[in-house]
# Entry
Amino acid sequence: MRAQSRASRVVMAVGVVSALSLLAACAGGEGAPIGANADDNSTAADGSIVLEFSQWWEPELPKGSLRGMMDEFEKANPGVKVKLISAPYASTQQQTVAGAASKTLADVVGLDGAWVNDFSKQKAITNLTALMQESGYDDSELASQIKVDGNTYMIPVVNFVYPMFTNDSLLAKAGVNAPPSTRTEFVDAAKKVTASGKGNSGWVLPLAQDAPNGIQNDVMSWVWASGGSMLKDGQPDLTNSSVKSVVEFIKELNDAKAIAAGALTMKEQDKVEQFTNGRVGMMIDSLAHINLIRENAPDLKFSISAIPAEDGYTGKRGMPYASWGIGVSENSKHKKEALKLVEFLMSKDTNSKLSSVANAFPGNKESVPDFVQSDEMFKTAFDIWNKGVPANEFTGLPTAEDLMRSFDVELQKTLAENQPVDTTLNNAQKAWSAKF
# Structure
């Protein structure tokens, strides 16, 4: 599974003591060395500067591809070497939290957007706006930047979009000839697939509270798809009509038993498994799972399309996404060189190459991944991406996982206990306001 599905998960702030305990616990594992500031290892024997670059990307990419890019960077920047500190996402997550708390982050650090607020407040990652201005870096080609209090702390390097997947065979057998484009069409299709029998369900919705990213990817994505928002002036706004209509929409599907059983304890990987096994008609999921589904179910006929919008909506559709982000340690001794590495990864050619091998969309507006020329489904996704607006309001929020979980708790009360929608939204609003 690609890291962007996990990348939508977030890290809660931890104290220095617990963070250091995590660091100690990971000390013997893969990617255990962390932070150029833990000891003075920032100069090679030949006098070259050594940049440490911690990330979870290398295990997700074809073998040798990221190292090859670093070799290209070193060739173009004599006197600078890059040491990759690579580990799976979960390990990198733990180590980055520990490094942020103890001020021992690597010079260049892979970031999940949901970590940025906490790390910036800890002064663990540097203000990239100021660093780019000092270095004269032109950021006009960057597709997006993640800001806190008006300053950039993370740059999305590649983006993983979350469109709607449809099992075309199940839909056709249920009398649905095309993927739905509106909520009314979606409800109709979901009910028809469920009524077709053989234990099939119209939609799969993961709402496990211990991995609550379903609130981001599978719930709020409906709000963003129709131009709505869960925020107002940067503060929680969960009682507005856009959010309410989505919760009512989900309740309608739940009451009609059109959602796959076990939603309240289901995680993202369970959702993908159910779709791959041909048991559900529709799901919202990461584009990167296309190849996984093809590999595990070569006979499954499926397609992707934009998330259906509210009836009558004609504006640009918000497209949920997750990113491999990048930042620079505040305590790095080599910020200038670190920014050069960031600039290299964001350059048109390198970003095209990286997005191609990652099956992702580029963070440089001028870059085009190779697969959009050779794979019709990826080309369709790229067209959806370009016609819509990237949307993920959880990025940059404080304790984003807690926000997802508190909303999840209340939503489950509506679905399982018939709690009134207004009560659910008012309770979630109170919980969120306390976090802000």
Notes: The chain has two domains: 3-160+323-383, 164-305+399-435. The first strand starts at residue 49 and ends at 55.
